[in-house]
Predict the 3D structure of the following.
Amino acid sequence: MVSLLGAGDELLKLVEGAFDSRVFVRGNEITVTGHRHEAERVARVFEELLRLLDRGLSLTPEVVSRSIEMVREDGPLRPSDVFDDAVLTVRGRSIKPKTVGQKRYVDAIRDQTVVFGIGPAGTGKTYLAMAVAVQALLARDTNRIILTRPAVEAGEKLGFLPGTLSEKIDPYLRPLHDALYEMLDAEQVSRLTESGTIEVAPLGYMRGRTLNDSFIVLDEAQNTTPEQMKMFLTRLGFGSKAVVTGDITQVDLPAGQTSGLNVVREILRGIDGLSFVYLSSRDVVRHRIVQDIVEAYRRFDEARSS
């Protein structure tokens, strides 16, 4: 009961505060009183939390809060479906979806050939795609991983940056390297990179290639031009899978230049094996205030465009 209700009934108070029902605990029995529909929802929350405990998951305020949200939505996915999906386990830590949107995104990556993950910062678009890619590599479902992103952002030009070409490009690719080191040992990353099994390169390096038996992730795709997006998508060879991630609210292209990610949403509708997954502020898994910030910007942009 302590695991279910939390120290000092911390988790119980979260459940009580989310519904217009009263919860009474006596020994190992939980009694819920109130409007029938609300009481049934509270009961479902506790059933899901017990199911998570039975599967060895620890309950935290975040897990309980997100479980409550899922139950209140009455959607087809249950909290146990979401939180029990270990995409990748590394050094005793499992990378899992934490929201319904993230779960749908992970399922789409597994099932589709090309997936576009579109949403604000903090929704795990790139991180989850890379986790699925690493798992596919470790399970030998793919022969190599290719991680790429546009090398020029926010109007900066590589020629004005100091250092060699590699040194100029590295800052743009550093986030991808950092995520890799969270998922694999440093020695593994070095060995797989040297052998070409894992490649981290700017988007321009994809031109003229055919990428067979590869798991390819294009990050920050909102900063591609329509021509670059077409070039990337037509690199896909046999036995390959591609995930394209981006945030259409943070386009860093020069003024007047169209984002390839915006254009492709109109062009590629209804293609079998290709899926668009949209994540929102509700899927932000960083500090809670980030979710509020993203939502505030969304409302501001809507008001300005109306």
